[in-house]
Amino acid sequence: MNRQSDAPKILPRSLKPALEEALTDTPAVCLIGPRQCGKSTLASTCDSKRAYVNLDDRNYLKLALEDPQGFLDELPEYVTIDEIQRAPELTLAIKRSIDANRKPGRFLLTGSANLRQLPRLADSLAGRMECLYLHPLTESEKMGAPGRFLNQWMSNAMETTLSASRDPAPSTLPGRLVAGGYPEAFHRSPKRARNWQRQYLQSIIERDIDDIAEVKDGRELARMLEYLARQPAQLLNVSAIANALGHTRPTVDRYLSILEKLFLIRRLPAWHSNRSKRLVKTPKVHLYDSGLAATLSDLTAEQWNEERPRFGHLLESFVVQQIIAMAGWSDLEARFWHYRDKDQIEVDLVIEARNRIWGVEVKAAASTNSKDGKGLSRLAEIAGNRFQGGIVFYDGHAVIPIDKSINLSAVPLSKLWEL
After folding, report:
1. E strands of 179-311, at which residues?
2. In the chain, what percentage of residues exceed pLDDT 90?
3. How far are the Cα atoms of 226, 310, 317 from residue 230, in angstroms, in the given order?
């Protein structure tokens, strides 16, 4: 993958139109996502006249904690407040200010913790704030593409294409997987990116954990994340994690919740045809960023062939992340699951939108066959008329029909960043 040696340019973010639209009709808009994913940069591109306050600044933070109402009263009418999770007390003052003046777009907040999982913050601004999720850079954003894959596929606009003859070329997937989506890491050499990713995790442990929970030893949280990084896209086994790390089950559950609130992991629930049973089955665990996962599990692009099974699991997490990020700017109101039945037949990603179902399987191979659609065929059978289609992602070059009766096709992974 090409990287410029000059100062890194600011890449356009596909979520920007949704953010600008929210600011036109909502008093407070909160841009939520992992540390260093580009929230502050995106916020700064929306309105250059808006005042800016960063609660990472100790002076601002001290004032916000000691006198939240007085602090807010001194701010202009339109303001961006960065890292709002650091001063939960400020949200009550924001609530009172909005109740007195409900002009849209007054407060643009950013948060590096999931505010919807922090009751004190979420309850304070219920009905007054819209949350938008900014993810690490997607491959389409890196390439300057519109990121329309999800819309085209789910509207049946994905045309069958035959692959033209071309000389064999090394796959770009290994480099994309280990680069990840954090802007700072992406613009560095692979070695420097790995150094940055390790220090990134250390900075979160030292600075952010205390904002959302009391943890005696942040190193234990880092150990758990590394453990999960070495087996991405696996069913969550709390007992196995507890045994491996020497923790109790309640401690493991608590640490998982913290990692999730910090946007380091994602728990992908299991899908079932009976809605009342969906949350009963075991979720899968994915790391948000494939680059961070690769660094923590000591995977490099040069190991692509010798470590293909491990890269296969990492690729699954990578695709899940790309699609969920795309859904954020696609107005699909989609929900995401995985499928696994008692016969251990699986579908990597199940997408549900408007009471309709789509399925995604991910393969690291450069070719595919009808057997790769086995899980999608089972999903189609169970979902019935709700099933709209499925794709098997692979590292090839052609869109190939697998089973036209259920709208099932093999699709090149490159479509994620070309469309």
Report:
1. 234-235, 265-268, 284-287
2. 66
3. 6, 8, 12
Contacts of 400 (CB under 8 A, 6+ apart): 160, 368, 409, 410
CA dihedral 148, 315, 351, 150 (to 10 degrees): 10
Residues 19 and 120: beta-carbon distance below 8 Å: no
Q: Please, what's the largest Cα pairwise distance for the chain?
A: 68
Within 10 angstroms of residue 44's Cβ, the number of other Cβ atoms is 15
Residue 276 is predicted with a pLDDT of 39
Beta 335-340 vs 346-353: how paired, if at all?
Answer: antiparallel
pLDDT (mean) for 255-275:
88
* Per-residue pLDDT tens over the stretch 63-82: 999 999 999 999 999 999 99
pLDDT of residue 405: 92
SS3 state at 388: strand
| CA-based nearest residue to 270, from 236, 223, 225 | 236
Neighbours of 260 (CB within 10 A): 17
| Range list of H helices, 303-403 | 308-328, 374-383
* Distance of alpha carbon 120 from alpha carbon 411, whole angstroms: 44
Q: Across the strands, what pairs with 362?
A: 393
Element (H, E) at 32: strand 28-32
Fold of 16-133: Rossmann fold (3.40.50)
pLDDT band at 344 (very low <50, low <70, confident <90, very high): confident
Helix (H, G, I), strand (E, B) or coil at 407: coil
Structure tokens at 378: 């089972």
> H or E element: which one contains 358?
strand 356-362
pLDDT of residue 47: 75
Per-domain residue ranges of the chain: 16-133, 139-418
Contact 225, 326 (CB under 8 A): no
Q: Considering just the CA atoms, what is the radius of gyration of the chain in Å?
A: 22
**Residue 131 phi, psi (nearest 5):** -105, 130
Q: What is the dihedral sign for C-alpha 105, 353, 271, 139?
A: negative
Dihedral (Cα; 294, 279, 212, 314), 10-degree rounding: 0
CA–CA distance, 113 with 133 (Å, rounded to integer): 11
Residues 258, 263: Cα–Cα separation, whole Å: 9
Question: Torsions phi, psi of 151, nearest 5?
Answer: -65, -45
Residue type, 390: G
**Does residue 375 surpass a pLDDT of 90?**
yes
